[in-house]
Amino acid sequence: MDVDDLASALQDSVSLLARRLRQAATPGELTLPERSALSRLDRGGPSTSAELARAEQITPQAMATTLGGLEQRGLVERRNDPHDGRRIIMSASESGREMLRRKRAAHARQLAAALGSGFSEEELAALALAVPLIERLAQGI
């Protein structure tokens, strides 16, 4: 398969999968930018707003707004950097980590139900082999 065709097919299928998972959202849940920032804090540990903005490729102002909303809801915590009192370090709170666990579990249940009802053992094995490749692809973007 041509690389351009493969790129287009992957974009379409991954976008459809992400849209379908997001469609199950309920009022009061995290927005996509909030979930992304909270997930990054959960996976990567405490960080400054500027570092998060660079990692998410958004403006510092947009990240400040996102973190402000998360902080108001008790999902992130702020503290002064012990090495530089001018810097603020943000981290996921226990409530924030619990919200991510619930959302991830709900998505995993949706995926498991779809996988369990419509795929052969061979197809499941092929998908299992593709997971690390898709992750590596995402890291390279």
What does this protein structure show overall?
The structure is a single chain. The protein has 141 residues and is mostly helical. 70% of the residues lie in helices and 7% in strands. The chain is built from 6 helices and 2 strands; from the N terminus they run ααααββαα. A two-stranded antiparallel ribbon has the order 1-2. Helix 2 crosses helix 4. The longest helix has 25 residues. It is globular, with a radius of gyration of 18 Å. The model has no long low-confidence stretch (mean pLDDT 90).
Strand content: 5-15%
Could you tell me the number of beta strands? 2
Query: What gross morphology would you assign?
Result: globular
| Rg (C-alpha, Å) | 18 Å
Distance between the termini: 20 Å
Could you give the order of the helices and strands? HHHHEEHH
Set down the secondary structure blueprint.
Elements: H1 3-22, H2 32-44, H3 49-56, H4 60-72, E1 76-80, E2 88-92, H5 94-118, H6 121-139
Antiparallel strand pairs: 1-2
Helix pairs in contact: 2-4, 3-4
Brief summary:
With 141 residues, the protein is mostly helical. Helices cover 70% and strands 7% of the residues.
Which properties best describe this structure?
141 residues; two-stranded antiparallel ribbon; single chain; mainly alpha
